[in-house]
Design goal:
Number of domains: 1
Structural class: alpha/beta
Oligomer: single chain
Helix content: 25-40%
CATH class: Alpha Beta
Order of helices and strands: EHEEEEHEHEHHEEEHH
CATH superfamily: Ribokinase
Number of strands: 10
CATH topology: UDP-N-acetylmuramoyl-L-alanine:D-glutamate ligase
Largest sheet: 6 strands, mixed
Strand order of the largest sheet: 5-6-7-8-9-10
Number of helices: 7
Distance between the termini: 24 Å
Length: 267
Amino acid sequence: LISQVGQDFFGDQIIRDLKMLGVDTAAVSRTSEAPTSLAFVTADPEGQGDYLFYRNPGADMLLGPDSICESLFEAAFCLHFCSVSLGDFPFRDAHVKAIEIARKAGLLISFDPNLRFPLWEDKEELRSVIRRFLPLADILKIASDELEFITGTKNIQEALPFLFSQGPRLVLYTKGADGAEVHSPQASVFSEIVPVRTLDTTGAGDAFTGSFLCQLAKRQVKREELEALDVRSLQAILDFSNRYAAATTTRRGAAASYPTGDCHDRS
């Protein structure tokens, strides 16, 4: 994990929790120049989350490109990032440098726009930034409620030619209660929703993407092999990720709701 937290209670808590989850925090910096960014989530009766953020600025926003070095990527398989940290501050430049290094090292690049409008004063700037980073991604995860904002259409079939023209070789399309899809220039697969008693959807999208990338890592899929993945392989990976994400919604919380254990053993 590459990020930055403040020299405060929340920074201590985040690092402690990450370590308990088995996350390598060696690249999580500390700073006294800003407090740790905070996000509060409330869930409605259907388990849908509403987000409130406190950071003006937050410690993560101040992490600059000088903190990014090649050694961070030596044992990595994939670099994953979101638009939450792509505002007009040093962390955006850190992302650009990290992506450049990761690409040269042969890592897969995964991008989840993960739209959080309260973090942006100008929605057009958000759209522009997302489109700037699209060509840098090999894998794009996009939700049905984000599709029109990014592509101009609510129809995934109409959006795919544009998305593939920008660079991504795989598009992971999540539809909430309607399941999920994966598209490459050569193939498309679909997975229906897994029936569960949903309590909280917070983090379900991240669980879906993370488990999908985990399965690609298990198979050691390289960038040039992404669009050549056959339907059977794509279907197996998608079904696994759909089940995993559904399981997280049956418990409250984000990371705390994730099933534990090595994902290699549950494929």
